[in-house]
Amino acid sequence: MVTPPARSETPRKVTTLRLMEMKQAGEKISALTAYDFLTARMLDQAGIDVILVGDSAAMVFAGNDTTIPMTMEEMLYHVRVVTRAVKRALVIADMPFGSYHEGADAALRNAIRLLKESQAEAIKLEGGRSVCPIIERVVNAGIPVCGHIGLQPQSILTYGTYKVRGTEGDEADQILADAHALEAAGAFALVVEKVPRDLMVRISAELSIPTIGIGAGAACDGQILVTPDLLGMNTKFHPRFVRKYAQLAEVMDGAFRAYRDDVKAGRFPLESESY
Ligand code: KIV
User: Fold this and answer.
1) Widest pairwise Cα distance in the chain
2) What is the tens place of the pLDDT at every residue in 50-100?
3) 125 has which bridge partners?
4) How far is the CA of 168 from the centre of ligand 1 (A)?
5) Contact present, 107 and 97 (Cβ < 8 Å)
6) Centre of ligand 1 from the C-alpha of residue 94, in Å
7) In angstroms, rounded to a whole number, what is the distance separating the alpha carbons of residues 259 and 269?
8) Does ligand 1 come within 6 angstroms of the Cβ of 56?
9) Is 35 helix (H, G, I), strand (E, B) or coil?
10) CATH code at 16-244
11) Which pLDDT does position 3 carry in this prediction?
């Protein structure tokens, strides 16, 4: 009997529909951020399901104190280099602060740019019930929208703090109501940032769309972290919700110092490293 040649397995492209299937099957969604080609390619090859080109780039890539300065042009650039690298993961582009706050027309125009000029496959925007008309408009144009509730970093000037949300007054009920409203408006998934575990249990159980948590406990349908945080690249940032899977700051510092010492001492380059 002749054995048929093994077919090379093409990994199944992650789509918004696939994320929904994963929620229904109880399969957790892995998500991380990327802003550059090499990192995006490594995340994709490692089987990360969702790559978010987050406006956290304004902080961890560009060195700002908040995400507010990020522009559409900067986001378009980051999304373009990330989508160039990714074959399997779903690539979501963050809508920068100001790109959807002037109303549904401006939001739709900017969302279209992210798809047409940078090949994003979905967009994410922050906000609760107040952004539902924007979400409806963008979704009606055929653009998948991921919501973002709980701590919304673009509102840091209003909050004045990055502390956990939903712990005081009726804020937990408001966040739950926002979650339901975003689902009804057509969001395909929700990022939920820095809320108590108990609240997250309710949101994930009551919603049929997937929830992707950051600092929101284990009840989410998926988890996301900012990649430079997970890699231990920022020696000045140690929040409880970040697990550092590597200590890259130490590794990089060691490499830079060894290179400097080798150059100073004439040990680099060797003959074998020359032409
Ligand atoms: O911008 C970002 O990286 C994000 C994540 C924190 C979810 O929105």
Assistant:
1) 72
2) 999 999 999 999 999 999 999 999 999 999 999 999 999 999 999 999 999
3) 147
4) 23
5) no
6) 8
7) 10
8) yes
9) coil
10) 3.20.20.60
11) 59
